[in-house]
Amino acid sequence: MPRKNIRRPEKALSARFVETVTEPGKYFDGQGLFLRVAKNGARQWVQRITIRGKRCELGLGSPPAVPLATARKLALENRGTAMLGGDPLAAKRKAREGKTFAAAVDEYLASKLSEFRNEKHQKQWRSTLDNYATPVLGRMLVSEITVQDLLRVLQPIWNEKTETASRLRGRIENVLSWATVAGHRTGDNPARWKGNLSEMLPKPTKVKTVRHQPALALSDVARWWVDLGEREGMAAEALRFLTLTAARSGEVRGATWDEFDLGDAATSATTATRRAVWTIPASRMKNGREHRVPLTTEAIELLHALPRLNASPYVFFAPNGGMLSDMSISAVMRRMQEAELKAGREGYLDPASKRPAVPHGLRSTFRQWAAERGYPRDMAEIALAHFIGSEVERAYQRSDMLDRRREMMADWAGFLHAKEKDDNKVVRLP
């Protein structure tokens, strides 16, 4: 007579029985496989097996995550391994000692550091993973991470921090892809978007609220430029150069003297200006492509007036000789705004959001100016180092319109100084 709590059905278990059974006990199937039902209703697959002469029990997971068919397949494989002299229990223990997600992040970043554009990008990668992914996935083996685990990470921030969540998903996908190639996991990547998470999360473009960087109003540009000219210090010089070139803060702060060709000193100032160019290498560009910036007379004069530090390669260097921080340039604009408020004026506000303008918003100011002055869209977009059109269009459009952009940037410098070309002037009749 079988012992108490052991259920031996007349035939093998059925999937329906596994789904509905609630009475505590052990329900046998075959190959030593049985379903253990605890008093609290928890269920677990267990296999009794003899390994190298020693009888033991192996846990095979729990339904419904591990259905009956899968449990039978695992039990049969374990039995075959044991019959051939193998040890399925040792193999399972070894699998449990696999690579954790936290360890995979460390190894992935160590192998990819050279591909990041700068130290700030490296820190952003690490920060997003540490803040959002590691608390949930850190101790999990990469081989055990599923789509449901990804949803536990992404869903809490998907609607409120859409851009961060979207970048986080891509970074987790990269880490898990590396883990697959390195042999730490198999199967599909649970962080993949198309045909996977895209079916369970709304498109980022549907939930993301676009918040543009506050830009300087065109009507405030001339007054702001005069105000900036009264500011001293390397950060103020960098902000002036940033404005003249419509470049990004990181491109200006990371600029080194070997990136500049200021023309032949023996030639006239006019000839030198026609040849002066700042070539930013692809490694420092957001789009990963080399970018040439034509330098105006004002930009060249600014560069010639700058002090040079022999121990530093940077054009705009910090007091310690390193690269200026992003906050140092932002602080110049912030102090300018504070001075305006102290004088009883509203200051330099974005016309739409009414927020104080910031350095990156100056690129938007330039773009608006170019559009209103009738400059071709492609020329203005190239000046901002934006991609133009499709990949096919870019393959055929290889000119960066350097000479034409030089004229446009000279007009922009004139606008900053409140001087317009004659055909843009408006004559007010008395």
UniProtKB/TrEMBL annotation:
Taxonomy, superkingdom: Bacteria
CDD domains: INT_P4_C (cd00801)
Keywords, comma-separated and alphabetical: DNA integration, DNA recombination, DNA-binding
Domain Core-binding (CB): from-to ranges: 99-180
Segments forming domain Tyr recombinase: 211-409
InterPro entries in the record: CB, DNA_brk_join_enz, Integrase-like_cat_sf, Integrase_catalytic, Integrase_DNA-bd_sf, Integrase_DNA_bind_dom, Integrase_recombinase_N, Phage_int_M
The family this protein is said to belong to: Belongs to the 'phage' integrase family.
Name of protein: Tyrosine-type recombinase/integrase
The species this protein was found in: Sulfitobacter sediminis
